[in-house]
Specification:
Distance between the termini: 20 Å
Largest sheet: none
Transmembrane segments: 9-30, 36-59
Number of domains: 1
Low-confidence stretches: none
Keywords: Membrane, Transmembrane, Transmembrane helix
Order of helices and strands: HH
Amino acid sequence: MKEVIKNTLLGIVVFVVGFAIILVLTRSGIEAELTYYAAIAYALLYLASVISVCTAVILRKITQLKK
């Protein structure tokens, strides 16, 4: 159960940090074109958080199998 919580927190941290970076970059006078780019960045950010959680799970399973 601890691993599930750690993996979930890892995904949340990746998402929040990326979200903060995107907000800082798109803060100034946003144009219509930039909103599309921001939406793409949000989607990529969500994907990155999912991939980081999956990678953490896979690496932990591999290290457990090697022991």
